[in-house]
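Chapter summary example.
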Amino acid sequence: MVPERGSNLRRTDAALSNQVPEDLAVCEYCRRPLPGKKSTGRPRKFCSDSHRQRAYEARRRAAGLGLGDGTVVVREEVLRDLHDRLYVLEAALEDVCQDTASARTAGDYRAALAHLMEAATGLAGLVVEPATG
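The structure predicted for these 133 residues follows.
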C-alpha cells in the first residue's frame, strides 16, 4: 500500500531511521557511511575535511539566523528539485503497486521493476546541502 500524500514527511523520517543500521557510522553532514575505522584516536564524525567545514558553516548560519539546533537553511530551488524527484518516485511506486497487482508473467514484474528503478535513479547520489551564504 502507498502512503497518502501529505503524510510522507513523518513516514519518511521513520522509514529512514529504520533503513540505516544504528551501529553504522555515518557522516554528520551527508549521512553517507564513513570510511573504515582508524585504530587510534577519536571516532570520525565526517567523511572529509570539506564536510566538517560545511557542517560548521551551516551551524554558524543557523545560529546567526536564530534557528535552533538541528535546523538548517536550504536553498528553495534545491528543495523544489528534491520534491520533484520524490514526486516522480512516489508516482512510479503507485504505478508499480497497481501493475504488480495485475501482473501475470515474469516480464510484467520485470517491466514494473524497470519503471521503478528508472524513477529512483533521479535520487541516486543526491545530497541536499545546507545553504551557507
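To summarize the output: Residues 9-72 form one domain.
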